[in-house]
Amino acid sequence: MSRHRRMTLLLAAFLAMAAAGCEHHGTGPTSPEGTAWEGELSLYRSSASRDFKAFAIDPHSGQSGWGWGFRHPDDAIARALRNCRSKAGLGCRLYMVGTTNVEGMAAESLERVASVYYERTVANRERLPLDKRALTDAQIEAAFSPSLAAVVTDHAGQKAAAAIGSDGKISVMLERDPVVGRRADRGTWWAENDRMCHRFAHWYNGKTQCMRLAWDRNVLKGYGDDGVLVATIEPRVTDVGSADRAAATSQGPDGRWRGVATTTKKSGGWVCTKRFGLEFTVSSGDVSGSFDGEIDAEGRISASDEGYQRNAIYDGRIVGGVAEGKWRVVGACSGSWRARKVAQ
Length: 344
Hints:
The chain is of the alpha+beta class. Helix content is about 20%, strand content about 40%.
């Protein structure tokens, strides 16, 4: 987020507090002891690992609101004020950003607190290696086609089960109930400017979040625009069987592949298997395994199988980490197949 946008957001928060007559001059911060929000503040403080977070209060009504688990302090501030104002109106003001009491703080000081909070928190986080190339839009779309089931770990170490569909839909359920907020949410995802972007109905204030993706063996890692790691996506079971995969986009087609074939048409009275597994190896232009053949420089596969599927002919193509195509047995059965590269 740019400094100008950050300053605008923090200044807006400060002006809202001033308009409500909420500045303090020499009286010190409001004590939580005996207040209606004392318990909420205790929960907030106990969520030490859930950065980034912020806490807002309305001392007159005793209402409070907080946001946690965001990728930047600005988003946590916005959610805290929003949650508080949904219950108490414009009388809400910021009370804490991270573990720092910011009540009555001027906008410039608030900006410095948020900036230091961010830099100290991300200082020891993994960053996108200089020698690793992020995926392009086409490679991002290929990574989630067919649809993918995965375990996602966010920047705060929180795990969730995710279903990322090739149709652009995404649903996520947290491993554990959160201290506040929803455990599950749905939304959409898309590839844009070589980033995977997503927007949930409720999480992250309903705002679009984007990250660069790069393979690290069989795990996808997501990085913010500043290169800091914000999430990991570990594939699990998909509709092609094993979700083990390698960084095929940089290693080429050579290696082991595993997938499934389905029957979409049959004729001549044949009894056709509806669904069967495939496993093959690509090495120096040759394809061997469930079917035998060759692959050309453009990734096009031409192969046949003289065994289980009665002289089936396979045609297809490898693009990145996905191989797919058609198969047929003349006068009998035909269908489609798809496979993914298996991590070595």
